[in-house]
UniProtKB/TrEMBL annotation:
Residues 123-253 form the Acyl-CoA thioesterase-like C-terminal domain. Pfam families: 4HBT_3, 4HBT_3C. Transmembrane segments: none annotated. Residues 32-105 form the Acyl-CoA thioesterase-like N-terminal HotDog domain. This is Protein of uncharacterized function (DUF3705). It comes from Mycolicibacterium chitae (Mycobacterium chitae).
């Protein structure tokens, strides 16, 4: 399926990006965290000095709620070396910085002969795609967790392992195919929900997220497996492992704060269509 057939998240207007309604997140009339990170990643990647430099880390800070109104994004190179490049970016709305990101690029090189040990993870098979993706849903997310017919609510709303396959089905900016880096930046925001569920629902809202990569994703799907959730005094951190159909590509990390108003919610808009 071509992403151009669905409504894009944004339309460029000079140096501004005008959001369509689909860019709204699941918690009110504000932009979703995934599109904030996507625009910041897009701006950062435009400053890459060399195609042999790989984005190995992207950290996105959501400094305040971003209204579903035009935004501007600027990026600047912090440092360039023979094997690295550091780039920062900021999202601006009404002359105020509402989001920011920092990224690190490292130069590709020769792979050592032996691999270090890592926790083995096996993801569920790829989901069956619908005949047509729903233009009212921001992305296609297939969650896995609670066994069918056991309990009630969202399949992640259980005391056990949680997984997902995520596919972006629309362009971030109209007329521009999503790059693999932007694709990963859009998907990794799901880390917060994937790792933050308990048996009573989703009790935390994330303030940031970090994407780490050892290589760029191949193909339209990014798989995610929840690794950890640690929380105390209303603060939480979660980590997830990221895959494509060829194997591991990196990790997602998020920090979050408890919000009692969110406890009864099941999941962000965009996954509810495949949640039950």
């Amino acid at each position: 399926m071509q992403t151009a057939t669905l409504t894009p998240y944004f339309v460029a207007d000079g140096d501004a990006f005008v959001p369509n309604a689909i860019a709204q997140g699941g918690w009110g009339p504000t932009l979703g965290g995934h599109v904030i990170g996507g625009l910041l990643a897009r701006a950062i990647d435009a400053e890459r000095a060399d195609p042999e430099l790989l984005p190995v880390r992207l950290t996105v800070d959501m400094l305040r709620r971003v209204a579903t109104e035009p935004v501007r994004v600027r990026a600047e190179v912090v440092r360039v070396g023979s094997r690295m490049q550091a780039i920062d970016a900021a999202m601006i709305q009404h002359d105020e910085v509402v989001g920011r990101a920092s990224a690190l690029y490292l130069r590709r090189g020769e792979q050592p002969g032996e691999a270090a040990w890592s926790t083995p993870i096996e993801l569920p098979p790829l989901p069956r795609e619908p005949a047509e993706f729903d233009d009212a849903m921001p992305m296609f997310v297939k969650p896995y967790g609670r066994e069918p017919g056991v309990g009630s609510g969202m399949v992640w709303q259980h005391d056990g392992p949680r997984y997902a396959w995520v596919r972006e089905v629309r362009e971030l900016v109209a007329g521009e195919p999503n790059s693999p880096f932007v694709q990963a930046a859009l998907a990794v925001d799901v880390t917060a929900s994937l790792t933050g569920f308990s048996t009573s629902g989703l009790g935390f809202i994330n303030a940031d997220y970090t994407l780490t990569l050892c290589r760029l994703p191949e193909g339209p799907y990014i798989g995610m497996a929840a690794l950890t959730h640690y929380s105390e005094v209303g603060l939480a951190t979660g980590t997830a492992s990221l895959f494509d159909t060829r194997g591991p590509i990196g990790t997602g990390v998020t920090t979050a704060v408890a919000n009692p108003h969110f406890g009864k919610r099941t999941f962000v808009r965009g996954s509810e269509a495949t949640a039950h």
